[in-house]
Write the structure tokens for this entry.
Amino acid sequence: MTRRPRIAVVPPRYGDDVIGGAEAVLREMAEGLVMRGWEVEALTTCARNHYTWENELPEGMSVEGGVTVRRFPTVVSGDMAVKHELEAALLAGAHLDITAQQTWANAGLRVPGLFDHLLDHGEEYGAVIFAPYMFWTTYACAPLVSERAVLMPCLHDEPYARLDIYAPLFRGAADIWFLSEPERDAAERLFGSLPRHAVIGSGIHPPEAYDVDGFRTRSGVTGRFVLYAGRREGGKGWEVLLEQLDHIFARAALPFSVVTMGVGPVHPPPAMAGRVVDLGLLPAGEMPGAFAAAAAYLQPSLMESFSRTIMEAWLAGTVVIGNGLSSVVRWHCERSGGGLLYRDEAELQACLEFVADQPEVAARLASRGRDYVLSHYRWPAVLDTVEARLMELATCAS
Amino acid sequence: MVSPYAPIRDGIAAYALQTVRQLRRQGNEVDAVSPVPSAARYHLRLTGWRGPLALARMTPEYDRVIVQFHPDMFYPRGCLPAERVAVSLGLALALRRSRRSEVVVHEIDYNRLVAPLQRRAFRTFLDAAGTITVHTKTERARLARALGLPMSRIGVREHNADFEAGTHHDRSSARASLGIPSDAHVFLCIGFLQPHKGFDRALRAFAALRSAASRLYVVGSVRVDEPEYALHAAELRALAEATPGAELRNGYLTDELFDRWIVAADTVVLPYRLIWSSGVMGRAALLHRPVIASNVGGLRDQAPEGTVLVDSDAELLAAMRHAVGGDPGAALPAGPAAAAAPRFRAPAGATAEAILSLVRARASEIRQGSGLPDLGERAGRPSEDRLVALAPLQPPTAGRSGSRLRRDLKRAVARLTRWEIDPLVQHVNALHAAVLEALSGDRSGDSGHG
């Protein structure tokens, strides 16, 4: 029988206070594997903040949740003005030649120490799991260990995914783990025939308790509210959502305030300034209460590969109002019957009116969502799949 | 290690990475210094006279300095002779300040060494190096002759001395993973798609081979988006499409995929028009794959035993024929690249319309014979995909870079010109939506015809 090899996970940031779906999945997976007796290392940066990549955490080795964490300092350099210009061109649909793509990818965050570590020690790991695909930590480092590289891309169909520099990651990885079927379908559309791959999903830990009263007392949030959690960024649909809500609240009587928790600037439109509550980065123990207290959870993002926050809302018994133009959000909502989908502002308004008028029916929808999460996205089942694939990979490598 | 460096895709970068790996394994602490941001710990803009001076400030800090030399890394394109001299002298200074130095010469532009002052300055640079290394004896002789250096000053180190196999695939699994038939004799041309690589010569020879039992794969990507290279890639695509059994796989490769392709091949074909030495030949030797190569540059010296060197296209064809056992299997009808027989028999007085219908009929045959997608499918779908990927055009913004004054100025200009720009933006977005709608309509119409 093949011995369990040492495993590495490579997220750009690591820690229980890091906001990011890919980072959370890798951390929980690493901790779950350790609990099952695997030796797991997290190879990551000293950064917490993915806007500045400032080295906030000490360089070197530590043990967190049973996982050996090796942190390497980030280097932020290169011509950022050029990077921003290239990025703007890319997002506007321009084709970047290969030189420009490499310039774009190598300007900004780099982690030479991590690269050197994998150059020296990559072969000592049975598998090295990289996520997400577009960060330098994956783009530059995965090719060093191609034959033991597991790519967990967290892919969205976005302009970055069409860059030539990313194609070898998808064609050359030893294994690719997708979080959902729509994500896999997007990869097949973008890269054609894929090597060994599987949809492994992601596990969600059901919280031990939902302290709604405690959340309201400590946060000062009163009344009915809709919730958005995560990165407040244009790419996540936050700005469009605020604009739509601004229009909707101007023309419809709705009993909701908008509560948000996460990172990034909020920038509410002037007319909504008193209606938007920014809780910032909440402690992990406080989040379940926030999800449970909300009348509905809003998921405006098109760019989802899994959408953990939808699962967290459903687990808390809160109905999801999701962007129906996102294939992943639509897929979860249609499979579960636990969410309301909107494709434009009018549909969003109608969804909100429904939740306002019929909260009990909305709650019944949410309970279907909860059943869906509990039957599809429990860590024990996900880890069974992960372990089987790691063992297969180890057998191939040996 | 002063060199282009990963993850930049470049032959010298890949070479340097392997050397760094070996040096680190031997217990050395190695820092890479690269001309552009990369995985190197440091990056220095090395081109121009300032580059070597910046390097000279770093070199005393190290016990050993290795420069992977290619002229493009140091000499700006089209620079004046005086600057070339300054660069060479700056490099000499950088090496003189180091405790121990080695220059690995990958290429030299000998045309630039005709002028005595430039030659003398370049010689000064190499004189400052503790060790000078090239990859073949031919290169050594040529370099020694050009600069009047004693042969003993120049070492020869095999191109693949630090190479390690980058894949554990065997031929069968490599073929399965790459979608290559398991039973064909596979010829491979691999590397950047550049005219001097001569992959077009291999395609023409393969077309003339007319072997049903063989395949030729041309694998690589355009290194720099310059018109010359783009045209060459288009030419290769056209040749491959017109040659039964040939295929162009245009794409960016990791080192592992590069080696996997070589392992999948039966014969690696290097029909170079010009080269100093070949990393591909080194990798093929490492992975025990026979090579057919042009007899140019230092390839004769570099070639391992069993390599077939050719001096002409006829010899290339003969070598490929020999590689498939002299019997190319069931002969295929010649493709256009072989230009064996006329394919059109239009009457002398035929109208353009009539000729066009013949051309279309022939194109249809080619598609059927080669498995190429239907014209509508090929022409329509990718463009639609790209159109869908286009984000709506936004009016220009002041951006995040530059001084506050500059951003304020940009904002003011944007406000003043908004009445002109906004209708254009709206119009472009409306056109985008209309084209998508039209394409969508065409596709649903196509499917209706079954």
